Amino acid sequence: MTFRHPERDQISVEGVLSALSNPTRLAAVGILDGGGELNCGEVLKILGVSAKSTMTHHWRVLRDSGVIWQRPSGREYLLTLRREDLDARYPGLLDIVLAGARTDAG
Amino acid sequence: MTFRHPERDQISVEGVLSALSNPTRLAAVGILDGGGELNCGEVLKILGVSAKSTMTHHWRVLRDSGVIWQRPSGREYLLTLRREDLDARYPGLLDIVLAGARTDAG
């Protein structure tokens, strides 16, 4: 299954904020910010999340808002943060939000 | 009626992002960013919103997340953006989000 993703100019700030306004999704984005592609299972493991179906919903929200790329690879799905697109469209937003999550964590 | 507001250190980035992820609330914050106190009716007028009850919900979300102060004054309510608190806790976030809304508007 190949997913549809919005083009860079179809991304909206409301959509990105909504996607990042959930602690689990925000934590997943923080993990993907390490760079490169990770498969869903790896991210779940780092997050300590066992409910795969909940994450299916979270990946969809992140994908539909333009925050991540998700592509099939064999029986798994690979995830990449769309940092270049997000930085181009909303310079600084991602870094500030990730820093904010660290502020909250104390 | 006096409202409860979170203290600065009770504000969470998820709560702020969620509050700002709605176009009407984001537009209201853009109006309040002009500075000072405005009453709800003035903001509604600038927004071109006639449904007062919908805005009652929006003010609550903005208030509970720590984005605005809301205080009664006679028969009206006065609103102020909590810019100092937001800038202290998440430096740059508000400006980048408001700039993002302008980017989206093209």
For the structure shown, list the relevant keywords.
homodimer, 106 residues, alpha+beta, Arc Repressor Mutant, subunit A, three-stranded antiparallel β-sheet, 6 helices, 56% helix, DNA-binding transcription factor activity (chains A, B), DNA-binding (chains A, B)
Spell out the blueprint of helices and strands.
The structure is a homodimer of 106-residue chains.
Chain A: H1 13-20, H2 23-32, E1 38-39, H3 40-47, H4 52-64, E2 68-73, E3 76-81, H5 83-89, H6 93-105
Antiparallel strand pairs in A: 1-3, 2-3
Helix pairs in contact in A: 1-4, 2-3
Detailed description of the structure:
The structure is a homodimer of 106-residue chains. Chain A has a single domain, classed as Arc Repressor Mutant, subunit A (Orthogonal Bundle), CATH 1.10.10.10. Chain A contains 6 helices and 3 strands. A 3-stranded antiparallel beta sheet of chain A has the order 1-3-2. In chain A, helix 1 packs antiparallel against helix 4 and helix 2 crosses helix 3. Chain A is globular. Chains A and B meet through helix 1 and helix 6 of A and helix 1 and helix 6 of B.
